[in-house]
Amino acid sequence: MTSWNLIYITGNGHSGSTLLDMLIGSHSKCVTLGEIHQLTLKAKGVCACGAANYKECDFWRDVDYRLQSSGGPQLSELHVDSSQESEFRRSNHALLSVLQEKTNARWLVDSSKKLTRLKCLLSDPSINVLPIHIVRRPEGVVCSNMAKGRSFYHSLRSYYSGLWSRYKYLRQKPCLTVSYEELCSFPEQVMTRIMRHLGLDFELEQLDWSSHDHHNVNGNKRTRTSRQSAIRLDERWRSKLNPWQRLVVKLASLHFVIWLRLQYGMRP
Ligand SMILES: [Zn+2]
């Protein structure tokens, strides 16, 4: 029997998962949690409301209070990303129960992205998980990684190995695939499709995502803490990647598409 509805956003880093998280979480019946598996990690707990960590955020402090009031552990004692199945379930159930009671949301949104976490969540019959796979074209992801000091070839390899694992795992699961480029170019149409899948009507206010209160953690900090609801297609790669790099990406893409077709009969 399922007790909670959870949207799980997965995808390579720098693929627009934080933007998608904010857009869905701006619906009146959805609440975004962000990369919840990192909530209590000291160095990474910055909340979208601007609080430096969960202990300084009213929303998460109240979650902590409610956990303890119901006789449960403190928030800092939860191991929501534990590799032990019993601990994983105990911690996630405790957290989801409190969040459900506090927000009364139809859907909670977890944008942790990691495939290992998604596998554990999907194996839990208590949670109705809908995976959303966000895919951005390789040039954009590679370019963002290079801006962080990673090499071109390393970034390209890591893009395709992540993409391959996700397609392989999700190919027979009820999963929604969203293109970053389409989301940014046609946000209303893409969000309408997603919300319909969730059994909800799209609300125009969702596009003004920065005007809503959010307490999602981690993810793209610039997007989370932005006070402007910009939905801008980032195509800086067009001027940043040289012709050789663009050719290598094209060949790698072709190779990937053929392999995916041969192995699983799928099109990306
Ligand atoms: Zn907050």
The chain-level structural class is: alpha/beta
Q: What are the secondary-structure elements, in order, as H or E?
A: EHEHHEHEHHEHHHHH
Given the structure, what is the number of helices?
11
Supply Rg.
Answer: 19 Å
CATH-scheme architecture: 3-Layer(aba) Sandwich
Biggest sheet statistics: 5 strands, parallel
Strand ordering within the main sheet:
2-3-1-4-5
What is the CATH level 1 assignment?
Answer: Alpha Beta
Q: Give the integer mean of the pLDDT values.
A: 92
Taken from the alpha-carbon principal axes, the silhouette is: globular
CATH homology group: P-loop containing nucleotide triphosphate hydrolases
Give the helix/strand layout.
Elements: E1 4-10, H1 17-25, E2 30-34, H2 58-69, H3 85-103, E3 107-113, H4 115-122, E4 127-135, H5 138-147, H6 152-170, E5 176-179, H7 180-185, H8 187-197, H9 221-224, H10 237-240, H11 243-264
The chain binds zinc ion.
Structure description:
The protein is α/β, with parallel strands linked by helices. About 45% of the residues lie in helices and about 10% in strands. It is built from eleven helices and five strands. Helix 5 (about 140-145) packs across helix 6 (about 150-170) and helix 6 runs parallel beside helix 11 (about 245-265). The structure holds zinc ion. The site of zinc ion has 6 residues, from loops. Zinc ion (ZN) binds near residues 59 and 215.
